Amino acid sequence: MSISGPPPENSAGSDAQANPPVGPRHAAPKKRRRFWPSKRWVQIVLSLCLVLALIVIAGSGYLYWESTRVNRIDVQNLTNAPSTGQAAGTENILLVGSTSRCALTVQNPAYGLCSQGVTGVNSDVIMILHLDWTTSKVTILSIPRDTFIPNARSSGAQKIDAALAEGPSQLVKAIEQDFAIPIQHYVELNFQTFAEVVDALGGVSMYFPTPVYDAYSGLRQLTTGCVHLTGIEALQVVRARHLQYQTATSGTNPANWPQESLSDLARIRRDHEFLKVLGATVKAQGLTNPITDTKIISSVAPHLTVDSGFSTSHMASMVLHFQNVDIGSVPELTLPVMTSTSYSYIYKGSDYGNVTFPINYADNGTILAFLHESLYTNTMTGKPLPKWQVTTVSIQNGSGKSGEGQTAASQLQYLGFHIGSVEDTTPVGNPAETVITYNSLNPDVVAQAQNAERVISGQSILAYDPTMTAPVTVVLGTNWYIPLATPSPTTTTAPVTSTTTKAKGHSTSTTTPPTTTTIPPVPGFAAPNPAVTTLQPWDPRSCTASGGKGK
Fold first, then answer.
1. Is residue 276 part of a domain?
2. pLDDT above 80 for 384
3. Which of 47, 308, 70, 52 is nearest to 169 (CA)?
4. DSSP annotation of 216
5. Is residue 503 part of a domain?
6. Do 93 and 185 meet the contact criterion of CB atoms below 8 Å apart?
7. What is the distance of C-alpha 92 from the center of its chain?
8. Quick one: angle between helices 290-300 and 46-57, nearest 10?
9. How many domains does the chain have?
10. Residue 131 · residue 331 · CB < 8 Å
11. Among 38, 133, 258, 460, whose CB has the most other CB atoms within 10 angstroms?
């Protein structure tokens, strides 16, 4: 497969640090920064969900007036809302936070200064808001920022958070082409807006079970209990991904406190909790409190950027339709990924630092649950996928292991797929993702690629690659397996339900892929995170009405 990309940019970018850390660092920080500077300044995209919900909830008359102050930009690659199939009546809104300090009207040292070289533009936390107009349900999906995907840049593979440097259109395209999640609208905010929204609410209260500290975000909460946070203090909480926490034996000096190991994934976990706290704060003040609504929308509007097609009338319709949604009960999912235990991932000769790899079946299950669609649905259109028997797949063996191409061909043929050419190709890295490519954006071709991707488990992902000769080509990576054909001896899968002795195509057999899979260990990678995470004992959380510890 021909997906090439430049080495990561050495930008002071989104992670400049105003004060040196007090606590311990990662095991090899210098090596990591030499190749890919860690991005510790992050706009928490979860706030975008609430801000959008607040705009929806606010009075529509005032919304019409304030909407004239919203920045509208041309965003390419957006998909029309589906009108047929399982996806009819739904839409997906991509919510991102720009890390560009230079875009701020007033520079603030708390975010890092453009004049000091903090110029990077990334989308460190990416969130998609799924709205179902038929059922009035809302679901949220977070994509970890270090997820390494084939179409992140126009030039090829990168971490997904690097896509925004080429503009919103590239980020939209990357999500649609690699995850097959259609995007109808785009919303973007910055650091300043987050703090102003919290301040417009009069601050928020969170319960700290134990003292916590993050040198990079500025968080320094050394007392426990229910604490009232200003906008800047709340930003420090939601940006924290180098969190250290006090234990019974670590003393009072943060330098001696242990640091949690999950970094971005831990931050997403806490950010989901913060969103619920913020939503509860709004609800407590009254969902249609004119004073609160005026403050919030006045704070948001000048800093809000949306796609030019996100009209005022559509926002007003959302106001009326989703006004009773309880943000605290909205399902919040995180895409399962496997995190590299190394700070040096070499891809086509370039070092991309620490990365996370997508993992199937877990990813497919999470995306389908997020979109409320069934296993054999084309997620880009909401229509049924074609039969396996009408899908032709070519195979390139990029695993570095002899004979893997023929093995994959035999297993896919067993399931009913037609097999095109089978050949070897040069591995792009060790390890390398398995990439199911399609060379055309024709919906029928994309659907056939999804067919193949649904049955291939392991570290695999979709990709659009117009340079490929065959319409659908599976480029085998290092870790792949097809449980339906020959379950791996090192993995445990849920039973395959079938009324036939062999799987011969999903449309003519009741055979279905397992809904759960115990992922076999992959050398150099941690186990995948669950789609739904729970708070750890040290995580800040909601306060009870009496100021105690929330759930």
1. no
2. yes
3. 308
4. T
5. yes
6. yes
7. 13
8. 130
9. 1
10. no
11. 460
Question: Token pair of 341, please?
Answer: 């235990």
Please report which residue ranges of 338-403 form alpha helices under DSSP H.
Answer: 362-371
Question: For residue 165, what are the contacts with CB-CB under 8 A and spacing of at least 6?
Answer: 9, 120, 121, 122
CA–CA distance, 347 with 8 (Å, rounded to integer): 11
440, 469 Cβ separation under 8 angstroms: no
Q: Is the pLDDT of residue 400 over 90?
A: yes
Tokens in use for 210?
């134990």
What confidence tier does 275 reach under pLDDT thresholds 50, 70, 90?
A: confident
Query: Which residue matches tokens 């040069």?
Result: 426
At residue 265, what is the residue type?
A: L
Counting every residue, how long is the chain?
551
Question: Which H, E and C letters describe 260-311, residue by residue?
Answer: CCCCHHHHHHHHHHHHHHHHHHHHHHCCCCHHHHHHHHHHHHHHCEEECCCC
For 333, the token pair is 């999912």
Residues contacting 118, CB < 8 A, separation 6+: 12, 13, 14, 16, 41, 101, 111, 112
Measured CA to CA, the distance from residue 247 to residue 538 in angstroms comes to 9
Asked if residue 416 belongs to a domain, the reply is yes
Identify the CA nearest to 189 among candidates 53, 13, 47.
47
Q: Please state, in angstroms and rounded to a whole number, the distance separating the CA atoms of residues 346 and 368.
A: 31
Structure tokens at 106: 């007033």
List the domain range (segments joined by +) for residue 512. 357-518
| 173-182, 266-275, 367-376: the lowest-pLDDT one | 266-275
Does residue 533 carry a pLDDT above 80?
A: yes
Q: Tokens 């989901």 — which residue?
A: 272
Structural tokens at position 173? 């395209």
Residues 433, 499: contact at Cβ < 8 Å?
no
Range scoring the smallest mean pLDDT among 51-65, 336-350, 390-404: 51-65
93 has which bridge partners?
129, 185
The residues, ordered by sequence, that sit 6+ positions from 45 with a Cβ below 8 Å of its Cβ are: 95, 96, 97, 123, 125, 126, 127, 142, 271
Residue 519: exposed, middle, or buried by beta-carbon count in 10 A (0-12, 13-18, 19+)? Answer: buried
Give which of 340, 209, 348, 327 is closest to 273, Cα–Cα.
327
Whether residue 374 lies inside any domain: the answer is yes
Residue 165 DSSP one-character state: G
State the pLDDT at residue 387: 92
